[in-house]
Design brief:
The protein has 97 residues and is mostly helical. The chain is 39% helix and 8% strand. The protein has one domain: Rossmann fold (3-Layer(aba) Sandwich), CATH 3.40.50.1000. The two termini are 21 Å apart. It comes from Tetradesmus obliquus (Green alga).
């Protein structure tokens, strides 16, 4: 989920992040068009598009208000403070990589 405006396309051109992720949930296009984190409707758009209950999703963000909103929506929510802490938290959630 990203609040990026259309300049996310410039990021894609430079970094080619689509090798690793889809740009499905960007606030300027697609299912999240016009919606921004931490608005509850943004999280609802994601769960609706994925056709999954929020309890099956993990949300990671570096902003506490967004993490709080994801938790309020029913998602497992993780505040990103660094890669080591993230890896540990994801393992606690039962995710392996």
């Amino acid at each position: 989920m990203s609040n990026y405006p259309m300049w996310y396309k410039l990021i894609e051109q430079k970094l080619q992040l689509s090798q690793y992720l889809d740009w499905t949930f960007v606030s300027c296009t697609g299912p999240m068009r016009g919606l921004r984190k931490p608005a509850p409707a943004a999280f609802e758009a994601v769960t609706s598009h994925l056709q999954l209950p929020p309890q099956q999703l993990v949300f990671v963000d570096d902003r506490q208000p967004n993490v709080d909103a994801a938790a309020q929506a029913g998602m497992a929510a993780v505040l990103f403070t660094g890669t080591d802490a993230l890896e540990q938290r994801l393992q606690q959630l039962g995710l392996e990589f």
